[in-house]
Design goal:
- The protein contains two helices and no strands.
- It is an all-alpha fold.
- Helix 1 packs antiparallel against helix 2 (44-79).
Length: 80
């Protein structure tokens, strides 16, 4: 009878992509396994990874906000 199928919501897919991007960037070692270009004397290998610490934080916050907004909208729709 009323079997509801799980629906893949776009915000959740985008949140998942935001969380997967840093993993892909760090697993693709050939993209940053070099010394140049240096930034204020810091080899590329190091500053690239430190940049991803900041980018990962931003992407995690974006994913968190997307999921929270989606959950709030879903709860609001259930109350009606």
């Amino acid at each position: 009878m009323g079997h509801s199928r799980p629906v893949v919501a776009v915000p959740l897919v985008v949140a998942g992509i935001c969380l997967a991007i840093p993993f892909g960037a760090m697993l693709w070692v050939d993209s940053y396994s070099r010394l140049t270009p240096a930034l204020i004397g810091i080899p590329f290998f190091y500053w690239y990874q430190m940049l991803w610490v900041v980018l990962s934080t931003v992407l995690t916050v974006v994913a968190y906000l997307l999921v929270r907004r989606h959950e709030a909208a879903r709860r609001g729709g259930e109350r009606k």
